[in-house]
Amino acid sequence: MGLENLLLGFQVALTPFNIFIAVIGILLGTIIGVLPGLGGANGVAILLPLTFTMPPTSAIILLTSIYWGALFGGAITSILFNIPGEPWSVATTFDGYPLAKQGRSGEALTAAFTSSFVGAFFSIVLITFFAPILAEVALKFGPPEFFAIQLLTFSSFVGLGGGNPLKSLVTILLGFILATVGLDIVTGQLRLTFGFTDMMKGFDFIVAVIGLFGIGEILLSVEEGLKFEGAKTSMNMRVVLDTWKILPRYYRTFVRGSIIGFWMGFKPGGATPASFMSYAFAKRFSKNAEKFGKGEIEGVVAPETAAHAAGVAAMLPMITLGIPGSPTAAVMLGGLIIWGLQPGPMLFVDNPDFVWGLIASMYTGNVIGVVMVLAFVPFFAAILRVPFAILTPLIVVVCAIGAYAVHNSMIDIWYMLIFGVVGYVFKKLDYPLAPLVLALVLGDLAENALRQSLIMSQGSLAIFFTRPIAGAITAAAVFFFVLPIITPWWRRLKGSPAPASQTPLH
Amino acid sequence: MRTADLVSAALLMALGGIVIYDAVRIGVGWGDEGPRSGFFPFWLAALMVAISAAIIIQALVSRSKKPFVTRDRFVPVFKVLAPIAGFIVVTDPPGPWSGLGLYVAGGLYLGFYMRWVGRHDWRSVVALSFAVPVITFFIFETWFLVPMPKGPVETWFGY
């Protein structure tokens, strides 16, 4: 039955128009992934307004293709320029850049793209099988269960995010507060507008993403005085084929990375820890552990496989539960709402062609993607050789166009600038940005779930604990929320030293 | 870092206070159809105030002497920020005045930044600040049909 649906999906994904859309998306996505200040999340956000008039399936194919492209593009900058475009590419630089400096960039890039492809493919296959099952289960969920899942989503940022748990909590709350600004659709009441008509529309997550991740990232990178000193690329068919001959040797790393990536990836913020974890495991089990960090192909394979498996796995909770696993998935979820689709398990019942078209396009998109990046690496690398004084204004203008296009309003461009400054300050002070964006996107859904639950229980919060499924999920969420408090205690009890503080990623 | 932490947490706390004020105004209790509009923002803001207070305590206890940003590292940041603000004002200034539109402003901004920060020669400055707006105009206005703010120049060309 699943296969039949997948075939239906391929009929949607393989129409010439949708293949064309996928190619365009991957091309744009890779450019976006290569450019500093434009990552997957805000690349998707900028282009979202352009999809308002498209059929939803083509629109989601465009956006997911941009996402795949951005994931591939991150590997290019990590290996050739030692600049991780995204936090989960940091581990790729450890061995990728040394390899490039030894003149083996072709091998490193081929290994990275192939691993990305393998990791992504593994997750897509699992999604194909698990998504319908998960959606089936989720169909039985009521508002209390959905609210409990939201709690679990945000608790994992606090408990597993690694940063300052208080600051993670504050950004979550801030995101939810920003989401409540404007018209309350349930009661028709205006909230937190303080009489300003401009505030009535509220804060759009697209504008927030463009500002926080786009403008904020540019400000950070100029402050750090980034210089793009790229290694030369030597890509040709022979290097690719020669690398493919040695890659099967690392099958254990591929399998391990894929599993770690998928397991971590469907939880929010999972891609970055997954890539580090996979790298650490590969190093521990490798015979050449001492070569790691100096230019070992396996050190590129491990994080790339896991990061992409995780990146794809982030789509699973988005299509089945309506809970995005990453900021990029959050932006896509916002897109679903704008295109008039109800995210969540009902999608599988009401819009099977959309869901299965999307899943099938994950297969086609990644195949097209790996071929395109392998073929056009020199072109993508050349983009970073454009002088900084030209790139920066170009990126800013594109960001401004994206922000304006959301509601055709000037105030959004100003918001973009303000969010940019906030993003810069927050990043410097170690306030995480991803939970803020997720909270802003999920705000209305979370509030509705909470309200309906409370109406069901006539105001008693006990409903989140007494219903069996909701109770289990809430308990897990509470556990993650208090994890940062109990961890130091637990360590002291066991007498082991506290771990060295994690180095911030930016 | 410590001062920046204190200031930002205090600002978040103040923001929480404002939200609580407005939430209380519209009602935080139980209405005819369940929780009223102020219910959700009120509890969010109350939590935010409490946690900001905890962050303030955390910052007071810490002994971080690292500055938030040094002057020489902030100069390039300012050099990016100020032209962006200028670009937005030229596009469409707040108030009754009308601006030059996004394309012309974008071209001017690109040219200014290339010359001021990048010190590119005038030929490439003029060429790019002419070519880029024209290309983006055709991509967005005619291909994707997303209208951007336009000014007298576009009107003069009949758009």
Q: What is the β-strand count of chain A?
A: 2
Structural class of chain A: mainly alpha
Strand content of chain B: under 5%
Distance between the termini of chain A: 46 Å
**Which series of helices and strands of chain B comes N to C?**
HEEHHHHH
Q: Could you estimate the helical fraction of the residues of chain A in percent?
A: over 70%
Q: How would you state the average pLDDT of chain B, rounded? A: 90
> Looking across the biggest beta sheet of chain B, what order are the strands in?
1-2
**How many strands, what sense, and barrel or not for the largest sheet of chain A?**
2 strands, antiparallel
Count of alpha/pi helices of chain B: 6
What is the count of DSSP helices of chain A, taking H or I runs of 4+ residues? 22
Task: Describe the sheet with the most strands of chain B.
Answer: 2 strands, antiparallel
Overall geometric form of chain A: globular
Question: Can you describe what's shown?
Answer:
The complex is a heterodimer of chains A (506) and B (159). Chain A is built from 22 helices and 2 strands. With 506 residues, chain A is mainly α. Chain A has a domain at 2-143 and 206-410. Mean pLDDT of chain A is 86; it is low at 498-506. With 159 residues, chain B is mainly α. Chain B folds into 2 domains: 2-61; 72-156, no CATH class. The interface between A and B is large, with 58 and 69 residues.
